Amino acid sequence: MVARLLVATSMAEDPDVAFQYAKKARGLAARVGVVRETCAIAAYQAGDWSAALAEFRAARRLTGRASYLPLMADCERALGRLDRALELVTGPEANEVDRQTRIELRIVESGIRRDQGLPDAAVVALRVPELTDGRIRPEFARLYYAYADALMAAGREGEAREWFGRAARADVKEETDAAERYEDLDDVSFDDLGDEFEGETDADSDDGGRAADESDRDDVGPAADEGDTTESHNGDDEAGGPLAR
Predict the structure, then answer these.
(1) pLDDT digits (tens, 9 = 90+) for 169-200
(2) Does position 224 have pLDDT exceeding 70, yes or no?
(3) How many whole angstroms separate alpha carbon 209 and alpha carbon 227?
(4) How many CB atoms sit inside 10 A of residue 141's CB?
(5) How do the domains of the chain map onto residue ranges?
(6) CA distance linking residue 31 with residue 63, whole number of Å
(7) How far apart are CA 109 and CA 122, in angstroms?
(8) Domain 1-65 is in which class?
(9) pTM for this structure?
(10) Distance CA 98, CA 100 (A)
C-alpha cells in the first residue's frame, strides 16, 4: 500500500494532490526515511514551506543525509527567515556536504542575498570553479541559470543573456526556462537595434532632404537668371515668359 501511494505521489500532476498521497503514505510508515523524504518534496512542490521543512528535518534524522540542507534553507528563505536560511547555507554542516550539494547551497545563498537587497553579492556567491572553468556541463545547468538570473537582477543584461544561452545548451533535460529567457533577451536586443536603425534612417532622411533642397536651389538659380536674361532681350511680358513655352 505504501509503495502504491509513493508511486501515486510521483505520478500526480497536481502538487496538492501529490502531497495528499504522500501524507497518506507517511501515516502508514512515518519512520521510513524515503517516505518522509517523498512527503517533504511533495510539500515543497506544493508550496507548503512549513510542512516541507518539518518533513526534511525528519528525513534527515532518519537517513543522516546532508543533501537536504539546500531545500531546508530554501524553505526558511520562503518563510522570510533569512537569518536562519543563511545559517544553514554557511554553517559548519555546509562544509561536510558533497560538491553538488555545496553548489546547490550557493544557489540558495544567491537568492538570500537578493532578498536582502544585495544583487552584487548574489552574483559573487555563485562564482565557483565550475562556473569559471569555461566548460559547459549538463550537471551544472541550474548553476548557469542561477548566475544568469542574478546578473539580470543586478542590471547586467548583456552578461545575463550570454549565461542564459549557456544554461539552455547545458539543460538537456529542459528543467529550466533558460531557452525562453535567452530568446526574450534576444528579442529585446533586436528591438533596441531596430530603434537605433530607425534613428539613423530618420537622420539620413533629414540629410537627404536638406541635400535635395540645396540641389533644387542650385537648379532654380541659373534657370531664373536665364529667364530674366531672355525676357530682357525679347521683351516678353507674359506670365512665365519663354521658359513656360
Answers:
(1) 999 988 899 999 999 887 654 444 344 434 44
(2) no
(3) 27
(4) 22
(5) 1-65, 66-125, 136-200
(6) 10
(7) 7
(8) mainly alpha
(9) 0.73
(10) 6
